[in-house]
Task: structure prediction
Amino acid sequence: MSDPQSFHLSIGSRFENIELVQIVLKDALERLGMEDDARHWVDVAVREAVANAIKHGNALDPAKQVKIDLTLDGETLTIRVEDEGPGFDPSHLEDPLAPENLLKPNGRGIFYMKSFMDTIEYGPRPGGGTVVTMRKRVAHGKETEANARFD
Amino acid sequence: MKVNMRKRDGVTILDLKGKITIGVGDVALRNAVQEAMNDGANKIVINLRDVTTIDSSGVGELVSAYTSATNRGAKLALVNLPAKVSDILYITQLITVFDVFDSEDEALRSF
Result:
């Protein structure tokens, strides 16, 4: 097993800080040797997770932090996003593909995260808040060909 | 994100450039579509050629633009979708909702 590679980042709950996360994430994924296309979809998933943490978790309170942790351990890329909000129950999510939801302006973020990552889990953050953990399999620092596209 | 609004053959064309993402790009798109409709536009083309990233909020704004236009009896078309934008619309089945064209000329002919 290779040595874990990681970064840890904490941002205030402002949408413009998502761009900072993207810069750090892009650099980290490039160093892991991830191809541009594969990196793009991980970027989108993380963008959605951080946006949800800022908007729905921390309710745009800039004093509340969003923490992003990335680790590569062997072939598994794990990205955790934590907020300090009231908690989140994913069982109440609506299906954005249902005909009655297709033209709703909201409700697609988690669907995209699930589409672009291999697994996604929600849990409580110790002390309050939500932790979303997303994983994607990579091989030898590069994403496997089978996983190179979300489809 | 930058938005350039122009007119061609009675059609209002919005050229978008950059990221249609939460907080800035989505708001710019919403404002541009609203401005076009307030100006009486009933045929609107959104040119996505230079869009580099779109997130769920940006997709939501495209949906809102479509429903607003439809509710006003206006028509809205998307043109020049980059592959990654097209993929995003495919997986949420929205590609079947929008009128999508490969070129501006095709979109203009459709109205």
Remarks:
- Helices of chain A lie at 17-31, 36-57, 109-116.
- Confidence is low (pLDDT under 50) at residues 141-151 of chain A.
